[in-house]
Amino acid sequence: MSNKIPWVEKYRPQSLKEMALSSAKVSGHRIKLDEELTNFIKNFYIEIKKINEENRKIRAYNRTAIEKDQKEELKISPEKAAILLEGPPGIGKTSIVYALANDLNMEVIETNASDTRTRKTIERRLKETTKTRGIMDFITQSKDKLILIDEIDGLYGVQDRGAVPTILELIENTQFPIIMCSNEYKTSLQPIYNKIQRVEVHPLPENEMLKITEKILEKEKISNLTNEDLELIIDKNNGDLRGVINDLQGISQGIMEKDNKELILSLHRDSIEEIFSLIRELFQVTTLTEARSLTDKSDVDYNFLYKWINENLPTFLKANRDIANAYENLSLADEIFGRIRKTQYWGLLPYFYDLFAGGVALSRKETPPIKGFRRVIFPRYSTGSYFSLTTAEKEFAEKIQKIYEISPIEFLQDLLPFLKTLSTSSRKQLKIISDWLELDAKEKKLLK
To answer: Which CATH architecture has domain 21-201?
Structure first.
């Protein structure tokens, strides 16, 4: 199984002492990131202890005081409760949080804002966690919690069913420190920026990235990559350390020639061509053994491949029952990978592959055999989890927004599938919807 472990996970630092920390700034002033985060955690617990003690006195007083004399309970100020790490994808923001938690003997409770965009889902996943300790915390000597909200820039702001106000409310009521990560600055997140400290995290310098790659190659006993090769890989990834490590693993598991330059430069192009072919072949298989064989042969990053399958599933599966079964398997795969991340038990990885690849492909029971060409499309969430619409989808969404207050994600996930169902029921319905929204040919095509 050690060969199956992605290197980005295998060599994820377990302590801040093991990390080459990126340079960071707050309001233009350089800071030491490890000291800033450690002090933030320690100061949070000092502050929340004072507030909780004071609130116990207030609650005791309120039980005997008449309503008009009752006092309002105190809340921790947002800048002491949460902090935001902002910087390009792949530079190690999430790794810093986990390493910090290990150093302070804390348990990380992680959620991804790109997956929990609405008030309801955010509250369901985080509200009780941030406010109270679980029953096991009283039975056993449990670790303190550290809340990680990753990819916060995946939110669209107040239009997205109140997601941003909900996060601000969680921050004010939390019993545990919150660290948020973002890939880029978003104006829609200004209400959050105004309340908490924003730390700009920069990519590692090339010389530090070179040291990390050399250590990995030494541990993997790989000697056929020169310093020039490594520098080319680092330069190609433009500061993305995760991309560098993925490239290293992909190259090292292949056959190297004397001149590796052409191979390194063509990595991205070749991987895209490979994944196009892999997706098409995967939905043609008839047994789990064939599905396993395809994923075993591929050097495509497991998380990257998961996103491609998730995006292209409706292109290859048409029957509702097949689609439902496929998404159920994807959901189970995601749950298993969450357990892998939490427990570091990589023996579960084959089950993850079987469910998201084989389980999805073999969900085809009622969909007729695929004939002719099927266009494979890029995932809407790239490595940095940036969500995008096609030109036609964007124009369609803008027409809808003139009638209803709706975010792009609501349009794509909820309204568009509903309109498709209506339109495919009869030509008359398609014409009614098209006339009502004044759709052009490209937009009509989205409903078919």
So the answer is: 3-Layer(aba) Sandwich (3.40)
